[in-house]
Design brief:
222 residues
């Protein structure tokens, strides 16, 4: 007797995407997690085994949204012809600009998540724990490249904390974007540019002028 055909990788990926999208839709419509994995799967017309083949719980589904957004962003950036010619500062700027551009398409969901205090500027969130690890790993790679090209000063006492500082910068920008009421989120774009320039001036040189400019901007946008 012939064995039953296995699900193709495409079908498996389709199920994963369906789960993430349906979870977002449920949260937007109901304002809370589904009552159970059983109820969620019944509504989606998949088995619980299909769900658990990808996720252990709804927390992992929520985290998957951020990770997929991150990997999609990095893949697009690193696949561009000009990426290898960018300086470290330009790479981080490009990452932020494209990441927050992608967030616009999911703003209702992201605001709901943030407003439910699943996100905390000081402590972060379990939803963002995987994103934090992936971001810091990627950032360390471009910082190492920057030091090898002498774009970044090698300071032994601070090298090990740069990834933490930039992660808090990322959280700051996320919170800024959440509160941004400007047309087309122009203030967020400006915050990205000024905060990145300020941080790189600190790890390079000429920090005073940049610090004053950034401080003035934050004061005006309180």
């Amino acid at each position: 007797m012939a064995a039953a055909p296995k699900k193709t990788s495409k079908k498996v990926e389709e199920i994963r995407t369906m789960i993430v999208e349906k979870y977002q839709e449920n949260l937007l419509l109901e304002g809370k997690n589904p009552a159970s994995v059983f109820a969620f799967c019944k509504d989606l017309e998949i088995t619980e085994a299909d769900f658990y083949a990808h996720f252990n719980d709804f927390g992992q589904v929520a985290a998957a949204f951020w990770m997929e957004l991150f990997h999609k962003n990095i893949s697009a950036l690193e696949g561009s012809a000009e990426w290898e010619d960018f300086r470290t500062r330009e790479k981080l700027l490009s990452f932020y600009f494209s990441f927050f551009e992608q967030l616009k398409s999911n703003r209702s969901y992201v605001l709901l998540v943030l407003d439910q205090k699943m996100f905390n500027l000081k402590k972060g969130s379990s939803d963002l724990s995987e994103l934090k690890a992936a971001f810091k790993k990627w950032l360390n790679q471009i910082l190492i490249e920057g030091r090898s090209r002498e774009e970044i000063a090698g300071r032994s006492k601070f090298n090990d904390i740069y990834d933490d500082l930039f992660w808090y910068q990322f959280l700051f920008l996320m919170d800024f974007w959440r509160k941004d009421k400007s047309q087309g989120f122009e203030s967020t774009d400006e915050a990205i540019e000024k905060s990145v320039n300020f941080s790189f001036d600190l790890i390079e040189k000429n920090a005073i002028d940049s610090a004053f400019d950034f401080g003035k901007f934050i004061f005006q946008n309180r």
